[in-house]
Amino acid sequence: MSKSKKIQWTRKHLIGISDLxxxxxxxxxxxAQGFEKFSTRSIxxxxxxxxxxxxxxxFEDSTRTRNSFTLAASRLSADVIEFTKKSSSxxxxxxxxxxxxxxxxxxxxxxxxxxxxxxAPKLLSRSINACVVNAGDxxxxxxxxxxLDVYTIRQERGSLDGxxxxxxxxxxxxxxARSDIYAMTKLGAEVTLIGPPTLMPASVKxxxxxxxxxxxxxxxxxxxINMLRIQFERMGGNPFPxxxxxxxxxxxxxDRIKRAKSDIIVMHPxxxxxxxxxxxxxxxxxNSVILxxxxxxxxxxxxxxxxxxxxxxxxxxxx
Amino acid sequence: MAQPVPQKTLIxxxxxxxPRNNIDQIADLYIDDFxxxxxxxxxxxxxxxxxxxxxxxxxxxLIDIHVHFREPGxxxxxxxxxxxxxxVAGGYTSVVCMPNTNPxxxxxxAVEYIHRMGRQARKTFIHVxxxxxxxxxxxELAEMGLMTQAGAVGFTDDGCGVQDTAMMLRxxxxxxxxxxxxxxxxxxxxxxxxxxxxxxxxxxxxxxxxIDPLAEEMMLWxxxxxxxxxxxxxxxxxxxxxxxVKIIREAKAEGLPVTCEVTPHHLLLTxxxxxxxxxxxxxxxxxxxxxxxxxxxxxxxDGLIDALASDHAPHLQSEKELEFLTAPCGMVGxxxxxxxYRKALIDAGVCDWSxxxxxxxxxxxxxIDVEKGSLAVGDRADVVIxxxxxxxxxxxxxxxxxxxxxxxxxxxxxGKVLYTLVAGEIRFQDKG
Amino acid sequence: MEILLNAEQINDVIGQIVEQIRSDIPADxxxxxxxxxxxxxxxxxxxxxxxEDYFSGGILNGTLDITLYRDDVNEPKEVQPTVxxxxxxxxxxxxxxxxxxxxxxxxRSIRAAMDALIDLGRPRLMRLAVLVDRGHHEYPIxxxxxxLKTDVDExxxxxxHFIETDEKDRVIIKS
Lengths: 319, 432, 175
Fold this sequence. Notes:
The structure holds 3 protein chains of 3 kinds. By secondary structure, chain A is α/β, with parallel strands linked by helices.
């Protein structure tokens, strides 16, 4: 794996992949490599963030991402505060900024935020001094998911340059898709979005991607296929008539995978709906890297926490 | 209350622009007994106030047919008193308050309350539109007749449009009995849904639900069909898309009694302003694209736009600091609307001062059917004196408005209101 | 810039380190040489190739990245540390771990390295080999095997160049 150029990491917030250059993305991935083997050590902890406080501020249900961040912070020896709250849509009463400033008054260093409103992490980063890491905001971005996705692909193939990657499913309501599009295209891959027109965002034609409404038309060309989770609670209305019909056209079935390249990499951000967007045989099959993605997520999140803290340190405002 | 004492005021050497009467010339204006009593050259009558308006524009007081002064219900954001002070600072001698207050203005005593608060504020004339439907819920007709008697100048459910077509048809039929204008915030909810900005590239990138231009256009088109059927005077509020312009153009070509207004933000700002989730740019209808701005400007050039309105919509800072999805829509602008129009229209060569002032004076007066916006002898002396070229920097902190949600903060603009006279009385005088 | 050691002299002092190790550590010892990134890594490889024949059981070789254990990781500094991976693919427990670094100065890197190693397992013995001990230790740490022991003024920097990464072998003093 090629080493990235040595750069100064200056971002104390990680809001979205759209903000990052190729060099910055590669720098995160290289840093993550330093954390990759932690899970196999007897002592899975380093003292790097000892005495630092990380707040996991989750306004939306999420077990996996939250656990992953909690573990990542713990392995760096940070203290972790779990803060979960259903976000309210009332415009009066305690606001997000109020909540964050309250926590900050207690001396926190990093806020990891998951929120159902796009832009909430950005808003937070403008109003508090602590580092802000976006753990998924609305339909906007989910940068650490994209980083672990490209990390996993790079681990498998060495590089993303020239790879053909398909992202299948509800693109319109997917923050993972948006972050993936930026990360993958910036690293040189060619991305094709695949799904029904009712699940494509308004200006998809202006994104640096191809669009296909037929998985069967494109599957043979793909080096990587990323199956998004169908999230009924996000979609609203009924963008497709039934699960059965969706699976028929866009499900990754054992039959369909036979027509793909034999070494196609099958990815899924999890948790999977077995039999809906992906059949069990494929999810558990030899092409699947779904569990590697989970493992790599930890390394990537450790790297991100380490780097934003380093940027804050460099800024000299913190100790 | 003591009767106001009529003041004699002589405004000398100004460039009198009175589009209603096709006047654009240097002239003196003499005001007595609340009215314009003489117009001429080198008037020498004695006066309580003599204002030298050399190099300035003297025009009928501006009329804003779309403001939100938030009273009753949200007095922390704005009151009729603070909004009125903001209005005269912006050169406005009459404004029309929208009924989407809390509770809404949907019956006669509420209309009277707004008028009373306006009289007490004693700054600008306060008009009000009543709601079309009870509680603005789009279900049952509000008491349009009694509200008309109380002085409502039109009807609207502004904030949202009347969704149900049969309901809207009934409302227009019924309103025709009182010869009041029915005014619509055109937005088809089934299309707009929970959208918070224009359904374009930025909405896709920011992951924010979009509002398709069709949401506005579908309702406008529908309403035009209802106008054909009922003949009721109809006004489209704050149109924002090229498609809406086309619909208006066709309706006017057919001679239908359809009017429309546009706002400064739909002339000066596009969806690109929202790249960083700045909620000061969250407004409904949403900021659109340059293509839409171009179409609206063309329509202004062609005389299709009847009124320039501010849609002055104050909100608390704490509310505007919410997540973009949750923050309320709207921006304040009544105190800087005039120079913004200058920038958007005159500087861009779209129209001249006379045409622009027409959309700020007599043409909106016609929409709400009041005898205003003219400065002939015998007319009530609602006057604004403008330094057309004075440059200044917009600073929301200095606004008379109680709210600061102004997207133009820090802009340097040209055109300054020096005096605002309402019924012959100087209600605002620029101090700086 | 002053040259402290040229290529030939470097060879000589590595030879001296090897001699010290041979006379101190029995040949049947279960030994692992672990270099501290990045110059220590190269020195460790050179030591390994010369000592391979001596140790009857062979020598394991690994590389240690100490960034995450540095005591100044949360101090503002001119150049940010870069995290790289630790490559130790074996269990260090019960082995003699020969820790290798290029220069011994404050002792802080060695402190960090010991902490990092202890998190990986429990060595039977830990020994330290350095190319240059330049003095001015700040922690109570000294090397067991030293190529060149010298006293360089505190304000100056001793910098080791190896042909693998820096075009030629030499040790210089920069002010």
